[in-house]
Amino acid sequence: MLSQHNIGKNLVSTLLSIAGFEVIDIGEKNSPWDFYQAAEKAGADMIAVSVVFAPAMEKFTELLSLLREMKVREKYPVIVGGAVTSETWAMGEGADGWGAQAKDGVQLARTLLKIA
């Protein structure tokens, strides 16, 4: 997750773990390349991003562009949430899902990964 702080990222990670998902937490202040490399290395099924400051919004857009450039965009559903985001912005950027609260990440993951 791309995050400038740990609170939201940690909440989402904890809730996903409790729900049975394996979470690879790459920390905070990561570049789009860091996300791509971590997803590839871990064999991830999805990428979740936390955006809490406006400058990170641009990095999220860069992440989606990088995934398209590397021809793996369809391989990774990408969800996003965070203080400065909105559903309109997230979907406009090309995210596969957006959550207003940490708990939304679990439902989004279940839906996108087709898990009951």
Biggest β-sheet description: 3 strands, parallel
Tally of structural domains: 1
| Low-pLDDT regions | none
Q: Estimate percent helicity.
A: 40-55%
Distance between the termini: 24 Å
Annotation, overall tally of beta strands: 3
Outline: globular
Tell me the β content: 5-15%
**What is the CA-based Rg, rounded?**
13 Å
Mean pLDDT: 92
The CATH architecture comes to 3-Layer(aba) Sandwich
Structural class: mainly alpha
Short note summarizing the structure:
This protein has 116 residues and is mainly alpha-helical. Helices cover 47% and strands 9% of the residues.
Write the layout of secondary structure elements.
Blueprint: H1 7-18, H2 32-42, E1 47-50, H3 54-69, E2 78-81, H4 87-93, E3 97-99, H5 104-112
Helix pairs in contact: 2-3
Structure overview:
With 116 residues, this protein is mainly α. It has one domain (7-112): Rossmann fold (3-Layer(aba) Sandwich), CATH 3.40.50. It has 5 helices and 3 strands; from the N terminus they run ααβαβαβα. A 3-stranded parallel sheet has the order 1-2-3, with helices on both faces. Strand 2, helix 4 (87-93) and strand 3 form a beta-alpha-beta unit. Helix 2 (32-42) packs across helix 3.
Give structural attributes.
Rossmann fold; 116 residues; three-stranded parallel β-sheet; 5 helices
